[in-house]
Each structure stands twice: as structure tokens, then as C-alpha cells.
Amino acid sequence: MNKFFIAIPVMMIGLSGAVAHAVPGEYWEISSKMNIPGMPFAMPATTSKVCIPKGGENDPSKTSGDKNCQMSDVKTSGNKVSWKARCDHNGEIMTGVGEQTSTANSYTGKMQLSGKSEGQDVSMDMSYSGKRIGGACDSEEMMA
Asked: How do residues 70-128 score in pLDDT, each as one tens digit?
């Protein structure tokens, strides 16, 4: 089960720009909390500083730091975006949905995923928020 406990938080915490070419970015402070029903302990909330391509904070296909997750059915309505996700980590598949609401300098979101890890059913709920803290950065360098 550890494979998803490591990979999925990286996806949400590492909301840095996954792009083919270096794109000017700016720093954001991302806070996230994950809940996994049945875990014997609560996962602690985390906060990190990441580089997101300018304008990419509203596009989950650009902000996902996990190259093993594909976003589909991305829908935008005003300042809200929703999507479906499919993550493949060494043949173990997790699927789910997410949504995010943005303002000019912040966003909040949530994502639910479920699937199997090491043969066991797994589900997890994540909530996260980001706030623009500014400063120029190279979004591709942050992915290295």
C-alpha cells in the first residue's frame, strides 16, 4: 500500500508545472491534507513552496506533479474546474474525481481517489489550498 501513500501526496503537494519546455513560473504555497479511511493514524497536513507555470494554477493537467496521473473530462465553469483522474503506479490503478475553485491569488480544491494497492482496496480524500506568494521561477527546473 505504500506506493500510493508516497505517490499521491506528491501529486497534490507537488503542484508544480509538468511541462515539456521551460515555462516562466511563480511561487505558490500549497497546503494539503489527506484522509485514508481505515488507517491506524491520521496523515499530517503538509505545506510546501512550489513553482507553477504562470496561468497554470487553473489547469490540473499542468499542475499535477505526478506524471503517472492523467486528467480527463476537464470542465471549467467560471472560476471552478473539475476533472477525472486515472493514476497508474507500476500497474496499480487509482481513479477518481477532483474539483478546484480559484481566485486571482489563491485556490482551494479536493480530490477523491480509489483503487487497489498491493491487492487491497484503497480510497483517499484530499483537500488542498494554494496561495500565490510571488517570485519568478523556472517551472521545469522544479520538476527535476
From this structure: 889 999 999 999 999 998 888 889 999 999 999 989 999 999 999 988 888 889 999 99
- Per-residue cell: 8: 499521491
Could you tell me whether strands 24-35 and 46-53 are parallel, antiparallel, or unpaired per DSSP bridges?
Answer: antiparallel
Cell numbers that stand for 103 in this block: 481566485
To which residue does cell 506533479 refer? 65
Query: Residues 6 or more apart from 66 whose CB is under 8 A from it?
Result: 7, 8, 10, 11, 14, 87
d(CA 63, CA 67): 10
Determine if residue 90 is left, alpha or beta; phi over 0 gives left, psi from -120 to 50 gives alpha, anything else beta: left
First to last CA, the chain: 25
Cell numbers describing residue 95 = 481513479
SS (H, E, C) 52-99: EECCHHHCHHHHCCCCCEEEEEEEEECCEEEEEEEEEECCEEEEEEEE
Can you read off the three cell numbers belonging to residue 136? 519568478
d(CA 136, CA 7): 27
